[in-house]
Amino acid sequence: MKTKFFLFLFNGMLITGIAFAQTATPKVAKKQANQHARINEGVKSGELTKKEAAALRAREAKLQRDKKIAKLDGKVTPAERAKLNREANRNSKAIHNQKHDAQHR
User: Fold this and answer.
1) What's the pTM value of the predicted model, to 2 decimals?
2) In angstroms, rounded to a whole number, what is the distance separating the alpha carbons of residues 69 and 105?
3) Which of 7, 9, 84, 103 has its CA 20 to 30 A from that of 41?
4) Under-70 pLDDT residues of the chain
């Protein structure tokens, strides 16, 4: 009886782990956190105007919505993961460009 219980418990944990792994996007989440900090730092230092920061935050919000949409079916496919990664990379470049343009607060 104990063996069956532990086997059932192990299978449940394994299935839960697999389901979580299919929807996890740790690289994109890490990039989002980094980019959020970069935007805030840019505003604080005066490298970004409030309007630029608002536009960059809107781009980050769109990435977050796209990430949620990709997770809706319970699995983030490699193609969806690549799309999210490309979008995060484009957002990163936009942050860099806005921080290094001639506009200052």
Assistant:
1) 0.77
2) 35
3) 84
4) 1-21
